[in-house]
Amino acid sequence: HGTSRINEAGRLEIGGCDTVELANRFGTPLYIMDEALIRQKSREYIEAFRKTGMRFQVAYASKAFCVMAMCRLAAEEGLSLDVVSDGELLTAMRAGFPPERIHFHGNNKSPDEIAMGIDAGIGCFVADNFVELEMLDAIAAEKGAVVKVLLRITPGIEVHTHEFITTGQEDSKFGFDLGSGAAMKAVEIAAGKANLELLGVHSHIGSQIFEMEGFRAAAEKVAKFASEARDKLNVVFPVINMGGGFGIRYVEGDTPLQVEEYVRVLTDAIKNEFASAQYPMPEVWIEPGRSLVGDAGWTLYTIGTQKEIPGVNKYVAVDGGMSDNIRPALYGAQHEAMLANRANDLPEEKVTIAGKACESGDKLIFDLMLPKAQPGDILAVSCTGAYSFAMSSNYNRIRRPAVVFVADGQADLVVKRESHDHMLANDVLPERFQVKG
Ligand code: LLP
């Protein structure tokens, strides 16, 4: 997929770059991002919205993969940006991302984060709960500012995805729930605050979703809620933000929706609700994360040791694992993989790809058909662009890999491999622990 292909040397090539050369040049594990594919996905969303004739914003949910180069790319493609912490906001600002297109999310923003967002002049805050509404208003008042807010509402929609990544159901840590009346109460409060400008509502029902019905039902509920807010409280929402969640294909059997249809379903639900209304059609915003960067990402590993338990299993170990991709261990996520240096070799045996962390659960792929692997072979795991680097850790004090963007035969480092010094930089040896000379 994307720009990946097998080249004349029988090796995996991405963005016109030979992956074995990339492994030699930058070392492994290595994240590779297919820049052209990210741009293509961005344009698909924007094109789909253009066709609807609605006003819109496509905000990249930066949590999926937040580094300065990605923020630049998002800015170049005309995307907006969803951030959820001071760290993501700072990354965007340092990358020169236009602040007015940044939306600040999160269920527990600190006063410092709110102040930082206001000072930066971001486009809006997505307010999550009553405590935050008070905080936003108070901090805005202190600064003599009026801040734009969306209210995150929980529409009570259940979708079939991993329970850790569903968010739309009533019992969620996020948002004002519709059922109990909290959402309408929030509209009333927000609309009455002198230092808040209520922009509209937001809803996000979960991630890696393949069901159009979930998206449609959520959009209908949110649109209906907007009508009710107008009828009951005379509050008009200029913006409806339908969140992210568009699922991608990791393995055979995954059945992603079509972007164009997805956008049409969301916008139609909103158009229908507002068709007869005497006030302007709201802008529709969405927040794709995974679907912009997920399948653009690959991870290259060097194969090391192997262990066979005859008749039971064969483990092939790589030089990374759960420290650079926690998703298989955390969500039971699945990936495909191939030998990048022998891409034409036929699969011969079924193996389990094990990571190098001291933890039994550190397995990246089960039942993978591979040619007989040798130490030094390069394993390329696909679809690791979203929530892999972003969720990476130093578990076992394994250093985080480098990230490289590839396009048109050019490879550029966008995140350096973590050095030993960097990893140790925040360790402190108190005086009483110091070795006496
Ligand atoms: N908007 C909001 C408010 C969100 O909470 C999220 C994801 C998104 C947008 C983007 O969703 P996406 O388009 O990427 O599905 N770590 C998990 C996924 C967690 C998603 C959290 N929120 C994973 O690796 O599967």
Q: Please tell me the total number of domains.
A: 2
Number of helices: 12
| Amount of helix | 25-40%
Distance between the termini: 59 Å
What name does the CATH topology of the largest domain carry? TIM Barrel
State the shape. Answer: globular
What percentage of amino acids are in beta strands? 15-25%
Could you say which structural class the secondary elements and strand pairing correspond to?
alpha/beta
The CATH class of the largest domain is identified as Alpha Beta
Report Rg.
23 Å
Written overview of the protein:
By secondary structure, this protein is of the alpha/beta class. Helices cover 30% and strands 24% of the residues. It contains twelve helices and 21 strands. Strands 4, 14, 15, 16, 17, 18, 19, 20 and 21 form a nine-stranded mixed β-sheet that branches. The chain has an eight-stranded parallel β-barrel with strand order 5-6-7-8-9-11-12-13, surrounded by eight helices. It has a three-stranded antiparallel β-sheet with strand order 1-2-3. Helix 5 links the parallel strand 7 (102-104) and strand 8 (124-127). Helix 5 (111-120) packs across helix 6. The longest helix has 22 residues, at 212-233. The mean pLDDT is 96. The structure holds ligand LLP. Ligand LLP is lined by residues 61, 64, 82, 105, 165, 204, 207-208, 243-246, 287-291, 327, 331, 386-387. Pyridoxal 5'-phosphate binds at residues 245, 287-290, 387. Substrate binds at residues 290, 327, 331, 359, 387. Residues 38-293 form the Orn/DAP/Arg decarboxylase 2 N-terminal domain.
